[in-house]
Design a protein that fits this description.
It is built from 1 helix and 6 strands; from the N terminus they run βββαβββ. It starts with a strand and ends in a 14-residue tail after the last strand.
Length: 94
């Protein structure tokens, strides 16, 4: 089981959290095409390696945060705020 460091509550078990999917998705401008809007709603990347994800401490403080995680090793590389830029990260695979 993953141990996740909630920025507000500290280290907790993974089953207290909910993954909200890919983070840093940019909403298209008004008047975009149907194809652009469909991509925004449904198209997500599924990388092997570095993944930038949104997480919520569902059974704790209920706060959202971003996580950089290696999908191969499940190693957590960084946890940062929803409005913070992506931090400089080490190599994803170790």
């Amino acid at each position: 089981m993953l141990q996740i460091d909630c920025p507000w509550c500290g280290r907790r078990d993974e089953d207290e959290f909910t993954c909200g999917g890919q983070s840093h998705i940019e909403r298209p401008a008004l008047g975009c095409s149907d194809e652009q809007w469909g991509d925004y709603l449904f198209a997500r990347i599924n990388p092997k390696g570095l993944s930038l994800e949104r997480w919520r401490h569902t059974y704790g403080c209920r706060q959202w945060f971003n996580m950089a995680r290696d999908t191969v090793s499940h190693r957590i590389l960084a946890i940062y705020g929803m409005t913070d830029p992506v931090p400089v990260l080490p190599e994803a695979r170790a």
